[in-house]
């Protein structure tokens, strides 16, 4: 899978994607990640990428002509057309279903906004999906882009190694995940639920299922709406 990122701050991407699972996926050629600087495609002497909003208002808006040129350049870097995703609080709320949909794409082109956002004509004519990682405003689309890259990478076959598979994770069947425990079995008088030490796999599976249901009912009843009571 190829992911291209358009950003004014390529340096923001150094670090989180250079460690652990994502790093390994890149080294193994499972994820082909490229970061591009939008400012390279500004044409004036001052390399301007933004301008004042028509109609007034505070802040600046990213120019459609600069973004169009940047996207056209990036598109030309690989044969697949790529699905263009713009990170914005006004987008579809990211969830497991959307992550899986995006992970099925051969190529994603993520566009990170800054200032007050981008000229709407860029969204209307070039963006395929607007995605939000939550109902809050950030200073840029870079962190949401990294969240998306991390979440999508987990679904690339082979990225999680043979061990875990995303299916067992939270949300896979719409429920929160069960509590986890490991050694020491006793710590400061705090013990581990006996069933987990029993080696009785059927009982353990039943206990974990019960925990997932109880947690979801208590913390995220919205996840259970529209589902007949999952026994
Ligand atoms: N909740 C989010 O996914 C999100 C995305 C982008 C953003 N800020 C960007 C959007 C255009 C200028 C800054 N804030 C929040």
Topology:
Elements: E1 2-7, H1 20-27, E2 32-37, E3 50-51, E4 61-62, H2 64-75, E5 83-93, H3 96-103, E6 107-111, H4 120-126, E7 129-132, H5 142-153, E8 186-187, E9 190-191, H6 201-219
Parallel strand pairs: 1-2, 1-6, 5-6, 5-7
Antiparallel strand pairs: 3-4, 8-9
Bound molecules: 6-(cyclopentylamino)pyridine-3-carboxamide (4GO).
6-(cyclopentylamino)pyridine-3-carboxamide binds at residues 87-89, 113-115, 117, 132-134, 136-138, 140-141, 144.
Protein architecture, described:
There is one protein chain. The protein is of the alpha/beta class and 231 residues long. It has 2 domains: 2-153, Alpha/beta knot (3-Layer(aba) Sandwich), CATH 3.40.1280.10; 170-223, tRNA(m1g37)methyltransferase, domain 2 (Trp Operon Repressor, Chain A). Helices cover 29% and strands 17% of the residues. It has 6 helices and 9 strands; from the N terminus they run βαβββαβαβαβαββα. It has helices at residues 20-27, 64-75, 96-103, 120-126, 142-153, 201-219, and strands spanning 2-7, 32-37, 50-51, 61-62, 83-93, 107-111, 129-132, 186-187, 190-191. The strands form 3 sheets. Strands 2-1-6-5-7 form a 5-stranded parallel sheet. Strands 3-4 form a two-stranded antiparallel ribbon. Helix 1 (20-27) links the parallel strand 1 and strand 2 (32-37). The chain is elongated and about 70 Å long. It starts with a strand and ends in a 12-residue tail after the last helix. The mean pLDDT is 95. Bound molecules: 6-(cyclopentylamino)pyridine-3-carboxamide. 6-(cyclopentylamino)pyridine-3-carboxamide binds next to strand 5. The site of 6-(cyclopentylamino)pyridine-3-carboxamide has 16 residues, from strand 5.
């Amino acid at each position: 899978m190829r992911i291209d990122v358009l950003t004014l701050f390529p340096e923001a991407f150094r670090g989180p994607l250079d460690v652990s699972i994502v790093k390994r996926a890149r080294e193994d050629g499972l994820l082909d990640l490229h970061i591009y600087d939008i400012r390279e495609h500004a044409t004036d002497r001052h390399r301007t990428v933004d301008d004042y909003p028509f109609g007034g208002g505070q802040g600046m808006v990213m120019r459609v002509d600069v973004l169009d040129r940047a996207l056209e350049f990036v598109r030309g870097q690989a044969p697949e057309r790529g699905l263009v995703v713009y990170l914005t609080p006004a987008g579809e709320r990211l969830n497991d279903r959307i992550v899986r949909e995006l992970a099925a794409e051969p190529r994603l082109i993520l566009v990170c906004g800054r200032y007050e956002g981008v000229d709407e004509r860029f969204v209307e004519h070039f963006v395929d999906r607007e995605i939000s990682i939550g109902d809050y405003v950030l200073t840029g689309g870079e962190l949401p882009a990294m969240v998306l890259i991390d979440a999508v990478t987990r679904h690339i076959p082979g990225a999680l190694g043979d061990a875990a598979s995303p299916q067992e994770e939270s949300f896979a069947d719409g429920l929160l995940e069960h509590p986890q425990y490991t050694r020491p079995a006793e710590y400061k008088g705090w013990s581990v639920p006996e069933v987990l030490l029993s080696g009785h796999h059927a009982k353990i599976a039943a206990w974990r299922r019960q925990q997932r249901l109880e947690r979801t009912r208590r913390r995220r009843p919205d996840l259970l709406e529209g589902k007949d009571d999952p026994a």
